């Protein structure tokens, strides 16, 4: 492993108090390093903020970032780095089912973690041949995970040479370098099941038809290892990480914008904010790579292909939303055509979308007898297609269309008391290039050793979605730990 600094630093400044920055802070603090975190927003959490709104019925707590939490051992490792137990800081609830898949023909399938129950559900849903296919599929993706996770995701990569190992051939034999769509189709004849076990590629910013087969590990994370939800909402995770970090000496400053990072004569760096200048032996930058490189006075070497964006409605609803599942995936009649629309910069004509009702797990997020509903509709990024969508103009029209899709999906006429509606233009205003919160797409040339390298200068390391290993809560937590390891080395296992 190449470190970003020749010697173990005494003081590290981390720019950004999102999940990547907080992960890096805990791992560095656990290694005995003095850590200062500087965040321009007045809150912690980065892309996992919390919005509190009061309606006629009372107070609602709305998450406006990620809603799916998997790979709990990775989160536990952040707390363990400073000698703490995750369960002393965050109360987690295991979701059962992890998701409910709802299809355009009116059928539905609960996606559960228990393999025997899932096999039985598939048999009832589509017959014994498909159940046998599920058995083979579940074993296959777990074997793929066992190779890909330790050697290609949870590991600092230093170019192609670092991947030239025997496990590379094993990934190839398991179909990891083919396409995800055909890989999943080799186990299932039923088109509904193919969608239910491949939609997770969207978390990596690519369609199942284009995603590498190795991204089946995301399905292993969701359905093999389970989905959880923290009491108090997803923002409870960065809030707890912040409290643990501060308890172990990490300084976290909010509402302070970093303007530039410059090398210091004699070694180290000066981190200039709008309020002061900090001296650091090393720096971890967690913004999107082009934003981080701009702080160094540099620009990216190549154009980045962005993931699709999304429109997010987070709403406080008077009364109870129909349905019992926490997470629901609604599939339209179209599938491949949906991804063509996104790639060409068009709105989805027949959308598939995610609905979460977190009050099914934590009723305290809403007043008594009310619900919180989160609806995520994929949308093109602002740099896809020839004519970007004018979101400011169509915002009210799209909101009406979104609500019509929800009504058609069985949610009826929602009595919305409070809401946050976030479009790609809003994501861009929050500083996310091309208006997408999903960073660079995980195409072949933007994955693994071809993704933005984490070491960008001596003693300057990147973390977050735009660098390795990539997009998603587990990946971002890993990126923070890997950034720390670049500076202080890996902890003994």
Automatic annotation (TrEMBL):
Keywords: Carotenoid biosynthesis, Oxidoreductase
Coiled-coil segments on the chain, per record: none
Domain (Amine oxidase): residue spans on this chain: 19-290, 399-487
Biological process terms in GO annotation: carotenoid biosynthetic process
SUPFAM superfamilies: FAD/NAD(P)-binding domain (SSF51905)
Known pathway: Carotenoid biosynthesis
Cleaved signal peptide residues: none
A GO molecular-function annotation: oxidoreductase activity
NCBIfam families: crtI_fam
Protein family per UniProt: Belongs to the carotenoid/retinoid oxidoreductase family.
Protein known as: Phytoene desaturase
Organism name: Leekyejoonella antrihumi
Chain's gene name: crtI
């Amino acid at each position: 492993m190449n470190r970003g600094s020749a010697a173990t630093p005494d003081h590290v400044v981390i720019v950004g108090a999102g999940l990547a920055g907080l992960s890096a802070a805990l791992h560095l603090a656990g290694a005995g390093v003095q850590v200062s975190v500087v965040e321009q927003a007045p809150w912690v959490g980065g892309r996992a903020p919390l919005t509190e709104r009061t309606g006629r019925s009372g107070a609602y707590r709305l998450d406006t970032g990620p809603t799916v939490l998997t790979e709990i051992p990775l989160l536990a490792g952040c707390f363990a780095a400073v000698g703490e137990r995750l369960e002393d800081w965050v109360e987690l609830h295991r979701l059962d089912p992890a998701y409910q898949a709802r299809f355009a023909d009116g059928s539905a399938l609960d996606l559960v973690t228990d393999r025997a129950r899932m096999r039985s559900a598939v048999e009832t849903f589509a017959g014994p041949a498909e159940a046998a296919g599920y058995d083979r599929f579940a074993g296959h993706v777990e074997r793929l995970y066992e190779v890909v996770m330790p050697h290609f995701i949870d590991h600092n990569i230093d170019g192609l040479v670092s991947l030239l190992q025997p496990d590379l051939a094993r990934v190839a034999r398991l179909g990891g370098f083919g396409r995800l769509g055909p890989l999943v189709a080799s186990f299932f004849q039923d088109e509904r099941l193919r969608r239910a076990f491949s939609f997770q590629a969207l978390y990596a910013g690519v369609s199942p038809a284009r995603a590498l087969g190795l991204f089946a590990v995301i399905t292993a994370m969701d359905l093999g290892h389970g989905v959880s939800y923290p009491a108090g909402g997803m923002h409870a995770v960065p809030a707890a990480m912040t409290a643990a970090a501060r308890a172990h000496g990490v300084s976290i400053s909010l509402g302070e914008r970093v303007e530039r990072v410059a090398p210091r004569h004699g070694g180290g760096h000066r981190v200039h904010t709008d309020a002061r200048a900090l001296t650091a032996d090393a720096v971890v930058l967690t913004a999107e790579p082009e934003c981080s490189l701009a702080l160094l006075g540099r620009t990216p070497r190549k154009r980045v292909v962005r993931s699709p964006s999304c429109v997010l409605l987070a709403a406080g609803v008077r009364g109870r939303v129909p349905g019992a599942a926490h997470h629901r995936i609604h599939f339209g009649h179209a599938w491949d055509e949906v991804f063509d629309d996104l790639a060409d910069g068009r709105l989805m004509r027949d959308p598939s979308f995610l609905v979460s009702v977190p009050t099914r797990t934590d009723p305290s997020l809403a007043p008594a007898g009310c619900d919180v509903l989160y609806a995520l509709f994929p949308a093109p990024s602002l740099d896809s297609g020839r004519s970007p969508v004018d979101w400011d103009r169509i915002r009210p029209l799209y909101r009406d269309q979104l609500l019509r899709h929800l009504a058609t999906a069985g949610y009826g006429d929602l009595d919305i008391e409070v809401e946050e509606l976030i479009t790609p233009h809003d994501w861009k205003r929050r500083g996310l290039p091309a208006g997408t919160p999903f960073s660079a797409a995980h195409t072949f040339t933007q994955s693994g050793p071809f993704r933005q390298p984490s070491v960008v200068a001596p003693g300057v390391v990147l973390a977050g979605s735009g660098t390795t290993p990539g997009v998603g809560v587990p990946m971002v937590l890993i990126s923070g730990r890997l950034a720390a390891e670049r500076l202080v080395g890996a902890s003994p296992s």
